[in-house]
Write a structure and sequence with these properties.
Helices cover 62% and strands 0% of the residues. With 156 residues, it is mostly helical. α1 (2-19) runs antiparallel to α4, α2 packs across α3 and α2 crosses α4 (82-102). The radius of gyration is 23 Å and the shape is elongated. It starts with a helix and ends with a helix.
């Protein structure tokens, strides 16, 4: 679903670019880069909290767009262009969506922050009373430890 939203957003921006200013793609790209850096920094600082990742990505690209218009274009005599700020901020939104997909904030967590049965892992409970049995590796096997552990788990 996130991929479809990202794809829709990309194509809507591409259509806007075809109908709007010539440097909108540059502002969108700059917003994506700045938003990606700001969002990833916020993701690391806040230990993966989704809201702070979005705030870092969108906020940093919005601040960059406003600063560019106010501090760079105004002293040079250029007129204020709100659509440049919007395209820069939209780049931050795109980077926030990408960060959400790539950093794993997919909504699989419970409200208390733990993982549930749908986490995709094979072992859901750890019983420390049983003796741990490691698989016997053969020379003719695939050499992939994950497949060996899965086979051992399923054959128990």
């Amino acid at each position: 679903m996130k991929f479809l939203a990202l794809l829709y957003l990309f194509f809507s921006v591409a259509t806007l670019y075809a109908q709007d200013s010539s440097d909108a793609v540059k502002h969108l790209g700059a917003g994506m880069v700045i938003g990606g850096v700001g969002g990833y920094a916020a993701h690391k600082i806040s230990k993966g909290q989704r809201g702070w990742t979005w705030a870092g990505a969108v906020g940093s690209s919005l601040a960059a767009g406003l600063a560019k218009e106010a501090l760079y274009d105004q002293p040079r005599g250029a007129s204020w262009e709100t659509r440049d700020v919007i395209f820069t901020t939209l780049g931050g939104v795109v980077s926030a969506l990408a960060l959400e997909v790539f950093t794993g904030n997919s909504g699989n967590r419970r409200r208390n922050g733990g993982y549930g049965k749908n986490c995709g892992c094979l072992v859901t409970q750890l019983n420390l009373n049983e003796e741990l049995e490691l698989p016997n590796f053969t020379e003719n096997g695939s050499g992939d430890i994950a497949s060996e552990l899965q086979a051992t788990y399923l054959l128990r």
